[in-house]
Design a protein that fits this description.
This protein is an alpha+beta fold and 184 residues long. It folds into two domains: 101 residues, Orthogonal Bundle (Peroxidase, domain 1); 71 residues, Glutaredoxin, CATH 3.40.30. It contains eight helices and four strands; from the N terminus they run H-H-H-H-H-H-E-H-E-E-E-H. Helix 7 links the parallel strand 1 and strand 2. The radius of gyration is 18 Å and the shape is globular. The termini are far apart.
């Protein structure tokens, strides 16, 4: 069963699909998913790691060495570490963030779930996240994995992206709409 949909159309999607197939074959889907979550958090928290993945001036050998060091320090599994090494060796570390998102989408499809990216102005409480998941489950008709980010530029409210749907309940958008309406 092809669970990747149109994901393989992108370079990051092809890398993610290959990683998914290997992880499924080795019965390591949960392990790889947890390791990729650590890598994603490291990308969000570390300017140095993020610049390593996006800088075209980093030498291939330096990138491979740096990725090995990061893999070791994060304590990620060998399959994910090899995946990062392959990206570094092929000079494709810039695809890492997209590959993580694509892997998340593939694994959600495989499990019969949906993914939603939610941006809020401040972190939500566990009760608020649970209520949001319940509402999104009603909308999607299946369980929803929520990837939360904080974006203070929204000013208030939240923005939800689920597949091709986007629900923008941010104060920033409402103010921009009001400003446009007042201009006539």
């Amino acid at each position: 069963m092809d669970i990747s949909g149109g994901i393989k159309a992108s370079l990051a999607g092809r890398y993610a699909a290959a990683l998914f197939e290997l992880a499924e074959e080795r019965k390591q889907l949960d392990t790889v998913e947890a390791s990729l979550a650590k890598v994603k958090a490291a990308l969000a928290e570390s300017d140095e790691f993020r610049s390593l993945t996006t800088s075209p001036v980093v030498d291939r050998g330096e990138a491979v060495s740096a990725v090995k060091a990061v893999s070791s320090s994060l304590g990620i599994d060998p399959l994910t570490a090899n995946f990062l090494g392959t990206l570094a060796e092929n000079r494709r570390l810039a695809q890492l963030d997209g590959a993580i998102r694509a892997f998340s989408t593939i694994i959600a499809q495989y499990r019969g779930e949906a993914n939603a990216e939610v941006a809020t102005t401040h972190p939500l409480t566990d009760d608020q996240v649970a209520a949001l998941k319940a509402k999104l489950k009603q909308l999607a008709g299946r369980d929803v994995n929520v990837d939360m980010t904080v974006d203070p530029s929204l000013l208030g409210g939240l923005v939800v992206r689920m597949g091709s749907r986007m629900i923008d309940g941010s104060l920033r958008t409402k103010l921009n709409s009001l400003a446009s309406a007042m201009k006539g």
